[in-house]
Amino acid sequence: MTSRDRPIALALRGVSKRFDRPAVDALDLTIYGGEFYALVGPNGAGKTTTLRMVVGLLRPDAGSIHVDGIDTLSNPVAAKQMTAWLSDEPMIYDKLTPYEYLEFVAGLWRIDPKPAEARARELLGWLGLEPHAHERCEGFSRGMRQKVALAGALVHDPKLIILDEPLTGLDAGTARQVKDILRARVRNGGTVIMTTHILEVAERMADRIGVIAGGRLIAEGTLDDLRRQTGATATSLEDTFLTLVAEQAAA
Amino acid sequence: MSRQASLTWLAGHEMRLGWRDWVALVTAGGRTRARTAFIALVVIVILMHAFAYWTVATYADANLASDTAALVGITGTLVLSWSLLLSQAMESVTRAFYSRSDLDLILTSPASTRKVFAVRMGRIAAGAVAIAVLLAAPFINVLIALGGARWLAAYGVVVAMGAVATAAALALTIALFRIIGARRTRLIAQIVAAVIGAAFVIGLQIAAIFSAGNLSRFTALQSDWMLRHAPDTASIFWWPARAVLGDYAALVAVVALAIAALGVTVAIFSRRFGEHAVAAAGVTAATVRQRRRGLAFRRRSCGSTLRHKEWVLLQRDPWLISQTLMQVLYLLPPALLLWVTFRTGHEAFVVLIPVIVMAAGQLAGGLAWLTISGEDAPDLVSTAPIPGNRVLLAKVEAVIGAIALVFAPIVVFLGFDSIPAAIICGLGILAAAAAATAIQLCFRAQARRSHFRRRQTSSRLATFAEAFSSIAWAAASGLAAAGLWQAVGPAAIAFGILAAVWTMRPSRT
Question: N or C: which end of chain B has fewer CB within 10 A?
Fold first, then answer.
């Protein structure tokens, strides 16, 4: 089964957002269920703005967004129920422990306490946070905070996980753990959308890669698709990406 | 131009930062705001001078140096102001150790930490003096205009008070570092600062309650007992008061002693500044294990989940602990007066209820900022499958719940003496708390909880509205307790403030 035979997990149609200049410009994007999709682009390309509109943190000026067929603008609560968002800056409560944080997140998503707790314990174990489960997060390193935030994103078992630069500032071991967990999610049928500046990560992990520049999707597909688009065959994603962005800038 | 990293070079750097902080505080960065702020400042200065004229004009020509009652009154006022300065300086000194903004840069640079510390303490002293001068200037200016240049000496006393307050704050903070360690010093210093700021006022009020049965601070200062036991007018104890009255010999002595006290304190303690700052930096990495009664997730509704989270965070918030403690301390004299009144059968609710209502409004404003604007995980809450208005409602419920918890005992106690007074007090508390919360809702802006101290700078309009609203509800409650229909006046003003806030609230996109 190719990815296109799968149900659509996320569909953006003509989505635009303008601040002092257009940040996202009539963007169309389709991501299928069980797909690992990487969104790459230069700084200020509109990646984060796009994802923040998907999770309801920004309202688009125009266009529509559907998560698993649900219109996020007309039925945001239902769309949020199946989505998780993780930003590059882990936002957790310093005065709560990881255990209390996960209980809070499970409460917000109205997850039955018993399975939520079992899932929380499993996640804390996977992420090596068990010894710190009852310590306040205020003394945690950035990597540990990111792990707590990731556990929070996964505790309600979302269909769609959206991550904005999740590997920024993480050490190699923690980054590996995060990547393993995301791969496992995709293997189990979940959908992952991730922005990253680490092109090697996109190249290795993503089923498809979207290149965004100036608020528009300028290329999309597997690494081979992207290479074909630039006319090169044996180049890395980095070379392909730089060529695509340079072409867009020149156009 | 001064040599790099020298004392004057560092002082220049601190002055530039201090000036920019002050400008940002007043103007919030906008040119239009700067003009508005300037006009507002002029109006406030005029009003304060008018108030000062009304208060002190009659004393301008008086010869008070041999009047014990006057010396006691002036000294009492100086000690009262100094305790507030000490409280402010202690907060600043604690911040100098714990704020990481530029300490990492400074401590890793080859600049002398002693010099940096000395300059920073100088800045704190200057800040304390500036605040004192701003508050005292209208009174001193009126006295100079009406009574002559001898009153200029009062400015010298203000400078001395700022210097001594900083020296005492520094010594107290370092003592705390040594006695209880860096980990606990921040919280305890905040509490000590709050207690010091309130203690003298409260002490005088308690003395006044027992001696005259009212809350006036000056009743205790002017009591027969106090005047009988006061030192002779020639005693050096009165030097600060005599300096205020234009005794230049006393002024020179007071200022010299104050500056020497600051200099010696800084010289003694500056050697260990780096050591304490490094210890304070290590505090952030300290681990706090949280004990938990049960180890199972509990079933809660979304609203209950949010309220519970807010209450847990409030309960673990050191600022809140110190502020609540201060509010509780301020409520001690009214509670004592209530007890005395209850015992003797007199009715003093007119004095009591406004104090309680005012305290409730102020505490609710702080709590509302912490719960509504001070959300540390805004993305999490915004992306949760809960309607935004349900989230806000849960936060408001958390504030009102916390206020009810703090003030319910006093209302219940009041009810033992007078049910109508208890009802009026309860309604006043509810109105003041609800109004303060509504104002914070109108001016909500995303911020970190740790930025609580900057909340006044983010919206001065909200700060003033919150204060005036609490005053209006306090006045309405007091008049209602006295059985006067005029209570509708301040209540109408309070509603007017809310309406004005609603129209001026920033637009949300």
Answer: C
